[in-house]
Design goal:
By secondary structure, the chain is an alpha/beta fold. It is built from 13 helices and 19 strands. The chain has helices spanning about 5-15, 25-35, 100-105, 135-140, 185-205, 220-230, 230-235, 260-275, 290-295, 330-345, 385-395, 400-410, 415-425; strands at about 40-45, 50, 55, 60-70, 75-80, 95-100, 105, 130, 145-155, 155-165, 170-180, 210-215, 240, 250-255, 280, 300-305, 350-355, 395-400, 430. The strands form 5 sheets. The chain has an 8-stranded mixed beta sheet, with helices on both faces. A hairpin with a 5-residue loop joins strand 4 and strand 5. The longest helix is centred in the last third of the chain and has 20 residues, at about 330-345. The chain starts with a helix and ends with a strand. The structure holds zinc ion. Zinc ion binds near residues 188, 310 and 317.
């Protein structure tokens, strides 16, 4: 484990966790500003009222304070203690209510008494408080409670962030995460931080592919981004939606809509080579922003590597999804898997045999492998380096990807890439750019 990396990640978790985010607002701008310390994010502000396909960008929401006070003036629920106490996009309210009237506006967690649930009211003109069952039980039937939500909705904008790292090829890999959840650590925030660190990693390398990192509010933000960057995204074939990557529980991955797409088998190869157990979640129509990116008009194969996947852990969408549940070490472990995956994606290129007519005279090019050469035959599923050379020269016609070659001959893409690079150096292979 990379200790200094975990420490850096932990620092960002602690700084970003307390911020009150939503689908719009200052919290999102502040979050992207902090992330900009790692990578130069471009900010796009989409004005309220902008039509994006079948949706309209909502009014901006701002909240200053909220509480419920008993008749003695004691705060029994206080937004300042947890921003989950107010359902996101709650209308402003100021008044006195008895418990019975107030009850309709109170939400508790269905199974965990000390958890504050997470609720949103993005497209309703309503308000609600979320509280623990213990807080709820402490409210007395005969008591009157003063209630304040100091919020407002106004013509503002929705904030999106993008960072494109240009590679040799114009072919893009989409990497998206969502910035819209308030103080929860695994859902939303862990994905934002992982994406930022992954982008930082890629920004320091010479890459073959172009990487498009997208930081948007879930659903409406992804829809707006698809609308704004429609032309670019229609050309993209492969993507990753990064979310719920920092829990203490199991690793897993959600498959892209085409389970035979290389990204799925490649992720499995990363897990197997890392000696990790993992859960497989087949593509499902529910989920995160792959719902937009995989829609008919875009059809981007988006997969997700997770650690304690959304829906699956008991603290999901509650105040217990916090920094006791998520930490820099766990997040750093998942980050290393994403890096390994990206390294494999980088190997997946197209090459053409420069000598298509009959066999190459290998000895002339010093390609007859010596005994105990660079490659361990056991690692290659019994394939010798000579086998791999011959298969590459047989299959690489500029149309078959190196991943498909590796699958066909039953070797890891890293090993096939190692041999391909040798052949490339000797100009026996040449690279085909898309
Ligand atoms: Zn969520």
């Amino acid at each position: 484990m990379n200790e200094s990396l975990s420490v850096r990640i932990q620092d960002y978790l602690e700084r970003l966790f307390p911020i009150c985010r939503s689908i719009t607002g200052e919290g999102n701008r502040k979050t992207l500003k902090i992330i900009s310390e790692l990578i130069p994010i471009e900010i796009l502000e989409v004005p309220s009222g902008t039509k994006v396909y079948d949706w309209v960008v909502p009014l901006e929401w701002k909240i200053e304070d909220a509480w419920i006070k008993d008749s003695k003036g004691e705060k029994v629920v206080d937004f300042k203690n947890s921003n989950l106490h107010v359902a996101s996009y709650s209308e402003p309210v100021e008044g006195v209510f008895d418990k019975k009237t107030l009850e309709e506006k109170l939400v508790t967690h269905p199974t965990i008494p000390d958890a504050i649930p997470y609720r949103t009211l993005y497209y309703n003109s309503d308000w609600a408080f979320c509280l623990s069952s213990d807080q709820y039980e402490s409210l007395k039937a005969e008591e009157n409670y003063s209630v304040l939500i100091d919020s407002k909705k106004f013509e503002g904008s929705m904030t999106l962030g993008e960072y494109v790292i240009k590679g040799q090829s114009s072919e893009e890999i989409l990497i998206s995460c969502y910035i819209c959840h308030p103080s929860m650590a695994n859902d939303s925030l862990s994905g934002v931080i992982l994406a930022a660190f992954l982008a930082e990693y890629l920004s320091k390398k010479d890459n073959f592919y172009t990487y498009r990192f997208v930081f948007v509010p879930e659903t409406i933000g992804a829809i707006a981004y698809c609308n704004i960057r429609e032309e670019e995204l229609k050309k993209v074939n492969t993507g990753l939606v990064i979310t719920t990557v920092g829990g203490p529980g199991p690793f897993g991955y959600k498959q892209s809509f085409n389970k035979d797409h290389f990204i799925n088998a490649m992720i499995e190869q990363v897990f197997v080579e890392s000696g990790l157990e993992f859960e497989t979640y087949p593509f499902d129509i529910h989920g995160s922003d792959e719902r937009q990116y995989s829609s008919q008009g875009f059809r981007i194969n988006c997969a997700t590597i997770s650690k304690d996947k959304y829906y699956e852990y008991p603290f999901y969408h509650s105040s217990l999804d916090n920094l006791e549940f998520v930490n820099g070490n766990q997040l750093s472990d998942t980050l290393s898997l994403y890096k390994k995956l990206i390294d494999k994606i980088e190997c997946n290129r197209y090459y053409r045999n420069s000598y298509p007519n009959c066999e190459v005279m290998l000895s002339k090019h010093d390609l007859y492998p010596k005994k105990g050469g660079a490659i361990d035959p056991n690692k290659l599923g019994g394939k010798s380096e000579l086998d791999i050379i011959l298969w590459i020269l047989f299959l690489c016609d500029g149309k078959m990807s190196l991943w498909d070659v590796s699958e066909k001959i039953g070797a890891s893409i890293d090993e096939v890439d190692f041999v391909a690079k040798k052949l490339l150096e000797k100009k026996i292979l040449n690279e085909v750019l898309n």
